[in-house]
Specification:
The protein is built from 6 helices and no strands.
């Protein structure tokens, strides 16, 4: 019985010493790992910089955003004419959000600014205390024409 206790105690002591010593890990191995980490980080930075140079455009197809804007534009006009002001205001706010998603895909800076400003102008017109229907119709028509130009701009380049 005493021999069993001594053997078990010896094994426990051996395990404890092994665990505290790091299970046989040596210093040179950890130095290699430390040297490899900066090299991996540098290669990742290089590949990310390379990817950013190639892909300056946002990922994804912008055409669904364009289609959404055209639909939202029609919805704003229809709901405003039907005196559904609250619904028209919601759709106008969605129109601006969709414009914000579409604008990064447009190459022409002037077209970017006009598209965003036109969407905001429509939202502001719909949210006005008294809506000028004729003025809103003009703004909607302007944005529809801009969206045709945007479609041409988007189809002229690839992502």
């Amino acid at each position: 019985m005493k021999k069993v206790k001594v053997v078990l105690g010896g094994i426990a002591l051996l395990l404890t010493v092994s665990l505290t010593a790091g299970c046989g890990s040596s210093q040179p191995t950890s130095q290699l790992a430390q040297q490899a980490a900066p090299q991996q980080a540098a290669s990742q930075e290089h590949s990310q910089g390379h990817n950013q140079q190639i892909h300056s455009m946002p990922a994804g197809d912008p055409m669904p955003f364009l289609a959404d804007m055209e639909k939202q534009l029609a919805d704003v006009a229809a709901k405003q004419k039907a005196s559904q002001t609250a619904e028209a205001q919601k759709v106008a706010a969605q129109l601006v959000q969709t414009a914000d998603k579409l604008v990064p895909h447009i190459m022409d800076d002037g077209l970017k600014n006009k598209t965003r400003q036109s969407a905001v102008a429509i939202k502001d017109a719909v949210h006005a205390a008294k809506v000028d229907q004729a003025g809103l119709d003009v703004k909607i028509k302007e944005l529809q024409e801009l969206l045709l130009k945007v479609k041409g701009d988007l189809s002229s380049h690839k992502h």
